[in-house]
What does this fold into?
Amino acid sequence: AAGTAGAPRAGTETAAGPRAGAGPGAPLDPDALLDALSLALHRYLTDHRALLVSRYELALEATRRPELRAFFDAAGSVFRRPLVAMTAAAGSAEPERHALSLIAWCEGLMFSCAAGSFHAAVPSRSELRTGFAELLRGMLGAGPGPGQPESGGAADGPGGRCRA
It folds into this structure.
């Protein structure tokens, strides 16, 4: 699972936090969610590369040692549980599945940028934010993204909004 650096906890409220309302159950501010996710992932890719490589080494070792598997799974749940809550608050009809998709996307980017073919080309925070926006739009049906027309596609729902 991706790290939690810079990621807000579900149900928390700060001036720049993802909650638009005053407490648990309040709708999530999509822009704040995108900012938090892109910041957390960018920090891991830029500030914590050695930790990221160590994490992959631990993941491989955990496939051979059950005691490490339990630790690795518990550490991953620290990010997974809040992400499930955030996707649910953002309107996901299937928050567990959507959280898995977001985590898998983050994992793929982290591996590619730490040890894979993109090790010398870390995406900017803006590029990561755009990627998260595209993923969430597909999951939540949040409408067209930057530079996309309001309507005209076969997948558009009422009022030109994309339906999930």
